[in-house]
Structures are given as structure tokens and as C-alpha cells.
Description:
The structure holds 2 protein chains of 2 kinds.
Chain A: H1 2-20, H2 25-46, H3 76-106
Helix pairs in contact in A: 1-2, 2-3
Chain B: H1 6-20, H2 25-53, E1 56-59, E2 70-73, H3 75-98, H4 101-105, H5 108-124, H6 128-147, H7 152-183, H8 188-196, H9 200-221, H10 230-233, H11 241-264, H12 271-293, H13 298-319, H14 326-358, H15 369-372, H16 374-388, H17 394-408, H18 412-438, H19 451-469, H20 471-486, H21 489-495, H22 499-514
Antiparallel strand pairs in B: 1-2
Amino acid sequence: xxxPLAITIALMFAAGTYMILRPNLIRIVLGFGLYSNAVNxxxxxxxxxxxxxxxxxxxxxxxxxxVLASQLMDPLPPDIILTAxxxxxxxxxxxxxxxxxxxxxxxxxxxxxxxxxxxxxxxEEAPE
Amino acid sequence: MNILILPLLIPFFTAMVLALCNGWRTLEKAISLLSxxxxxxxxxxxxxxxxxxxxxxxxxxxWAAPFGIAFVADRLSCIMLCLSMTVGTVVxxxxxxxxxxxxxxxxxxxxxxxxxxxxxxxxxxxxxFNLFVAYEVMLIGSYGMMMVGASKSQVRQTMKYIAIxxxxxxxFVVGTGLIYATVGTLNMxxxxxxxxxxxxxxxxxxxxxxxxxxxxxxxxxxxxPVFFWLPDSYPIVPLGINGFYAGLLTKxxxxxxxxxxxxxxxxxxxxxALDILLWMSGFTMFLGVMGAMCxxxxxxxxxxxxxxxxxxxxxxxxxxxxxxxxxLAIAGTIFYVVHHIVVKSCLFLVGGIAERVNGSQxxxxxxxxxxxxxxxxxxxxxxxxxxxxxxxxSGFLAKxxxxxxxxxxxxxxxxxxxxxxxxxxxxxxxxxWSYAFWSKEPREQAGKNxxxxxxxxxxxxxxxxVLGLAAQPFLELANRAAEDVIDPTRYIxxxxxxxxxxxxxxxxxxxxxxGWDQTALVQPAGGAP
Lengths: 128, 529
């Protein structure tokens, strides 16, 4: 089960990188979404994963003597994922608002076309 | 010691109160100032307390360290907190003269407190994942402050800043997750303890994973291969607040490098990261100063100098690979961070005043600040000499300690690069001096409203003079802080409960609670988010 998941994660990272490198703000936001979900999948794998692992709840009265730590899924990575989801949700919302504002103000979502004429020159000539 | 989290709680609640006070402009300023003064007083008390009574720890919710989230204040954290609050308060007072109505309407002061919250949080946390959360809080605040009232080209640069940080944050979580998968904990003290006991195949794996974190922290600190975002984004940070960004935000990255790569990773072969850092530092300082030399705007010159100065701090961290000079090198790095945060913020603030006086920040449109505002010129001269490393000021001593560490460690080439770089720094500082301050004024004085901005700037100038003239107590403090960073034994003892009592008690407690067998216990895991 790890291999298909690893391939998925790799594809999501690749697609996310491609999207972030595009000159459209909305694609940057989508690339960010792909990135954060790829990271979450990766964290799932980190927590021990697969059919042989149980959820870390023991409600079977017969279970205590028989359940080994290696058979339980680690509960911490899902915790981390939860926090990461909250953070990426907040960042994503902020990014969407920014993109929308940029689009409303300028009628474009291509950041490269945002220039105010007088501030264009980065490398100015030396005086004299 | 529960009051340890006050440097997080105060800015958090201040931000909320300020958001409610939106519209009462004077009230907002008064509340921000009171809150910053309270925090400053607290962190200085904390520094004295920690220096006297040892490392202070608080486990949130009463959970003992490897299970719960720990906030840890050792000497290094306290020094960084004192810096962030001193510079934060000074910059806050400075912004009273620079903030526009538009900025204040769009939550400038609440966002300032949020950035302070993120910065303080990253210095106090004892947990790798919490460090990530602190970074995110800091970044979201900084996006907001950069975007308010931004022109089109500023929006373009901010978007680049955001995109690069998105990638950095994602890599940070990946690194954290992989560290957890290989070491089994996220608590810094616990990682230090466990990695020290690792044998070779696992140790190599941890070293490989730590390279991801190296990339992330180097990106944050703007070190050599990943510094390109800084000279484009810092010049567009609004006037006033740019002093805080320049001083503190990249130094959070330097602090993380210092904390994580010197103290936390102890596996055999962890020196590899430090060797890489030493190489990076040479390129960082040299390319940074080369970049500064070909710029013709004050803010751009100063931004490139941040990169060059980060090189010195990373050099100190890299020199720590040699155990014989590790203590001197780390003490030098800590002193350099103190010096740099003060002086860099100060230069940005003085640059802002010169910009106000001349109505421009482009060197070829500026001139005659020496005649128009001699006090400002004096402040700039002291700060610039200190940055370049001229003797009576703090920059000289900071560089002296690092150079001495390098020479006694036999790292002659990096020492040569660092000395060459400081000459070039002097050159580009004298360029600002001769074009903006010394030359004939191109027109009548544009702005007169700058006198209030001088008082906070003068405070920072005074600090760099004091750091230089009365360096002994500060160097000794840096030395004591360095001891704890190089040898994490005391940190581990303070954070982790001793196996004899608490850990056994916790296990027994869990067993009683859940009816679990001892074998059913999950591996003790590091801090939950």
C-alpha cells in the first residue's frame, strides 16, 4: 500500500511545483493546495500505515493482553495533519482573497504584468 | 513556570483587542505601546531569572515533555526574546510617525502584534512542529503588513515572497514528518537524546532527512543558494516596519539553524550539516556584499547587506563543527546576532529618516542630508561603522570573536573571505554616505516631519555603542548561552522528566487509565500540535 501512495505523493508534488511556477496567481493557489495535501498524505505514511495497523483505540475487553504497539497506528501524525490542514486552510483563504483583490484592482492575475511605470528600473545607472 | 508563555499570550490578546479598537487611532497606538513595554519588561526579567536559576520549562496542559508540547526558555531563547522585544518596541514607536491612515484602517497594529507573536513563539518553543506553526503565524502577519496599501509592483514582489514561503513551509512539514518517522519524536530535547544514541545506518538516514530542514532554515535566513527572494521583497516593506523585518525575520532562520543543527541533531556524522553551512556562509557573505555594491537605492543596498551579514552568523555556526573551537564560535555567533539585529534595524530606520528628509531613497536623487539634518547623519555614521566592523562599536567585537575562532580552528580561507567582505561593506556604506549625506542637496528639503523618528533610532545607536564599549558582560552571557547549546545535557535534563520517577509514573498512570499492558504502549511520541 505504501508504493501507490508514494507515487501519488510524488505526482502531487510535481504537479504542485509546476503550478507554483506558472505566472498566474490562481495557479499558485492551486499549487499550494496540491502541496499541502501531498504533505498530509506523506504524514499519514509516517504514522505507520497499512492493513496490518489498527486504530489506536482499544475497546475490546479481551484486547489489552494481545495488542502490540507495532500493530497500532501512531496517533500523533493525524494530529499533526489536523494542524497542518487548519494552517493550510487559513493560508489558502488568505491567498484566495489576495488573488481576488489583485484581480479586481488590476483586471489580471498575471503578477508579471503588474508594474507601475516609474518603479520599473531595478538596475539603475550610476550617477555620472 | 506557567508565566513563561506570557510573551505569546500578551501579543495574542493585544492583537485581538486592537482589532476591536480599529478606528480609534491614538488608542490603538497607546495599547500597542503598553503591550510592547510590558513584554519587554517581562522578557528582560526572564533573561535574568533564567541566567540565575537555569532553564525554565512549561508543559502545556500539564503534560510532561515528550508527550505534551513544551515551551523552553534557555539563555539563547531569552537573549533572542529580549532582542525581538527591544527592537519591536523601538520600531513600534518609530511607526507612530510613519503609519498612514490607510494602513491603520487595515489592521496595521494588530498585524504587528501577530508578527511579534510568531517571532516570540519560534524562540520559545521546544518542539519542531511548533516551530513550523510559529513560522506560519509570523508569515501570515508579514504578508498582511506587506500587502496593505501596496502599489502594483509591490503586490508583484509580495506574491513572489508568498510563493517562495509556501514552498518553504511545505518542505518544513515534510522534514518534520520524516524526522518523526525516523527518530520517533518531535520534542527537541528528546530528539537530541535519541539521535545521540543512534548507530550508523539510522544516523545516516537522520542526517539525510535533516538536509530538508537545512534547506528550509537557509531559505528563511536567506543564505547562499536560496537568498534571491530577499533583495526583491524587503525593499517594498512599508517604511518603519522594514526595520523590524530586516532585524528579526531572517534571524529567526539563523536561530533555527543554530538551535537545530548545533543542539538538536547529535547523531554520528551530524557535522556534515555544519561543514555544508561553512561553505554556504562564504558564498553568502561575499555574494551579498557584491550585490550591495551594484545597487543605487538605500533600501536595496541595506537588503543585500542583510544577506552578507547572515553569512557571518552562518560562518560561526559552521565553525562549530570543530569541537575545539565550538564554544568560541557559537558565543561569537550569538554576539553577532545581537549586534546585527540592533544595527541592521537601526540602519533601516536611519535610511527611512534620510528618505523622509530627501523625499526619495534613490541615491542619485538624494543628497545633503548632512546639511539638512546633521543629527541623522551622525546616527547613520555610527550604525554604518558598526556594521562594517570599525573598532569602538559592537560590530568590531562580533567580527573579532568569529575571526579568532576561525584562526584558532585553522579555517584560514573563510576568515580571509570574511575580512575581505567587511572592507567591501565599508565601501558600500561609504557610498551611501557620500551620495546621500555628503553631496550637495539636489533641491530644497522635502520633508520636515522626521524629528520624532530620531528618538527611537537613537536608542538603537546607543545600544550598539554600549555593546561595543562594555562588551564584557554581554560576551560572558553569550559564552554561557553557547555552553548550553553545544552540550544539550542540561537542556535535556530540564525538559525531559527523569526516567526514574516521572516516566515510570506516567506509564503506570496510563496503564491504570486504559487497562493497557505495558507492551501495548505506543512508543513515547513527541509534542502533539
